Amino acid sequence: MQPSSGPQLAKTLTIGRGVAIALGIVIGAGVLVLPGQAYAQVGDAAVYAWILDAGLVIPLLLIFSELGARYPSAGGAAGFVRSVCGTRLGTLAEFLLMGAFFLGIPAIALSGAAYFGALVGLHGWGLDAWAAAIIVALSVIHVLGTQVSGTVQQVLSFTLVGILSLIACVGLFMHPLMRLHVAPVASWRQSLPVVGMVFFAYTGWEMLSFMGEEFKHPKRDFPLAIAFSYVAIVILYIAVALAVQTDLPQHDPRTIIVPIATLLASVMGPLAGNAVAVLALIIIVANLNGALWAASRLIFAAAREGTLPRRLAVLNTRGVPWVALCACAAVFVGVIGMQIAGWISQPLMFALAGQNFLLIYGLCAIAYVRQASGRWRKGFGIAVGLVCLVVLDSFGWKLVYPCGIAIVTLVLVVLRSRHTGRKRTNQLIE
């Protein structure tokens, strides 16, 4: 299905750039902490949690791969829902995603600023200023074109993977491979208590769906970008997990809090803290670069569909939705200002954004079921949707946020429908 009429984004993404974007989005700051926390809780069986989650994420990746190849759109997951389920659910998906991006991306920027502050000794309001500066700088890079922003993402992502791979190799080869600390395969059930926690490290591929319209050959390249990045990330995660549980003492507080820093300390000594701060900053900036790309495309697609003012769907000479980018940057900086004023906390920003993403997974499962042929595929989509519902039940009062978004969406859809009806009536009269 082709994107709707209106400005079309330039098709500049290749498999390599798609893989780089996926790596930068999925490999988050969690990899700095989760290997140690999982190991501390379940010991040498921890690696099986990483393996199990690598299998559990496959159903979601299959859904996004199929929908992304069939419905390449700048609207990403919202575009899938709109194409299959119609305007109402599509508009709801767009606003839920906006609600997630508008809180989640500033929260990520604040995390990046915190790591930068640890590196240079910065504190107080200066951290918030740096968070805003990171967003503005990345927005300028994006305005220069997808060639530039894609190249930046490739450098960040491959540097990140290279550093983490080096850390894993150093940790593993400090001891003979025969001495790896791995529990017998029969004891894999011991890892179940940390499977949910570790799964957080495998989220983020859904962001790649917003770049579907920009792939040169989306039907081929989109699924391949997901597949190649998946293989690379699984190998990297398992290697890091093995290095942590082979080289570090299970119940040492440093293993729980800063496992990667502890691994580096055995090699680099006092410089390990700075090295981890640099690594974390690369992770955060790569996350932000991909997330800003996704958010601006969502705004562009919503404006092109008429959900938002069409002025937001303007492209520059490089085919970049620069107005949508500027609007996103302004909102993100505004949310950072709200955090400075004490109106919202960073943990709450993450929590509200996370539950919105979970709702999007559920809507994508509905879209998958509606377009799937055959009982097994429909049953598969239903099962994924039910899992989303079960997890959603744990959010409690925070569900007020997406409920409020749903009410606003309903009002806008009704008003838009009435406006369209009056316009058609006037045209018939004339």
Can you tell me about this structure?
With 430 residues, the protein is mostly helical. The protein has a single domain, classed as Amino acid/polyamine transporter I. The protein contains 17 helices and no strands. Helix 1 (15-26) crosses helix 13 (272-305), helix 12 (259-268) packs across helix 13 and helix 15 runs antiparallel to helix 16 (375-392). The longest helix has 34 residues, at 87-120.
Q: What is the global morphology?
A: globular
| Strand/helix succession | HHHHHHHHHHHHHHHHH
Structural class based on helices, strands and sheet pairing = mainly alpha
**Main beta-sheet strand count, sense and barrel state:** none
Question: How many distinct helices?
Answer: 17
Instruction: Output the CATH homologous superfamily.
Output: Amino acid/polyamine transporter I
Q: Remind me, CATH topology?
A: Amino acid/polyamine transporter I
| Average pLDDT, all residues | 81
- Give the proportion of residues in helices: over 70%
Number of domains: 1
Number of E strands: 0
What percent strand? under 5%
End-to-end gap: 34 Å
Query: Nearest-angstrom radius of gyration?
Result: 22 Å
Architecture in CATH?
Answer: Up-down Bundle
CATH class: Mainly Alpha
